[in-house]
Amino acid sequence: MSIFLYACESWTLTADTERRIQAMDMRCLRKLIGITYRDHVSNEEVRNRTRQAIGPYEDLLNTVKRRKLKWYGHITRSSGLAKTILHGTVQGGRR
Questions:
Q1: Closest by Cα among 62, 48, 56, 54 to 32
Q2: pTM of the full structure
Q3: How far apart are CA 95 and CA 93, in angstroms?
Q4: Which of 36, 49, 83, 91 has minimal Cβ neighbours within 10 Å of its Cβ?
Q5: HSE of 40 in the Cβ direction (CA atoms, 13 Å)?
Q6: Do residues 75 and 83 touch, judged by C-beta distance below 8 A?
Q7: What is the DSSP letter of 91?
Q8: CB 9 within 8 A of CB 67
Q9: Which whole-number Å values give the CA distances from 5 to 33, 45, 56, in the listed order?
Q10: Tens digit of each residue's pLDDT (9 = 90 or more) over 22-59
Q11: Residue 41: which residues within 8 A CB-CB, separation 6 or more?
């Protein structure tokens, strides 16, 4: 998962991106507990079986959103180029 989450703080989360993240999460869960799509097991059942096998877990989309908020807080508390770019505030005016 660490490879998947590399630099996720800078991603723009659109509806399509969120859908793809959820699909990746489900693919990983199915692989983890050995269920294929041919078995015709619903996604909710896969989540229930995963909770039974490994206990409570945080899905990938929530992890990405949590990391984005953590990064945003880090940047807003700093004073540098990243904060200037993120907020879009540049001193001065146009000619």
A1: 54
A2: 0.78
A3: 7
A4: 91
A5: 0
A6: yes
A7: S
A8: yes
A9: 21, 25, 19
A10: 999 999 999 999 999 999 999 999 999 999 998 998 99
A11: 35, 49
Per-residue pLDDT at 12 exceeds 80: yes
Output 87 or 27, whichever has higher pLDDT.
Answer: 27
The structure tokens listed for 41 are 């097991």
Q: CA 27, CA 38: separation in Å to the nearest integer? A: 13
Please list, in sequence order, all residues whose beta carbon lies within 8 angstroms of the beta carbon of residue 70, skipping any fewer than 6 positions away: 9
> Letter for the amino acid at 47?
R
- Given a contact cutoff of 8 angstroms between Cβ atoms, the answer to whether 86 and 24 are in contact is no
* pLDDT score of 60: 93
Q: Crossing angle of helices 60-77/15-33, nearest 10°?
A: 130
Task: Judge whether residue 71 has pLDDT over 80.
Answer: yes
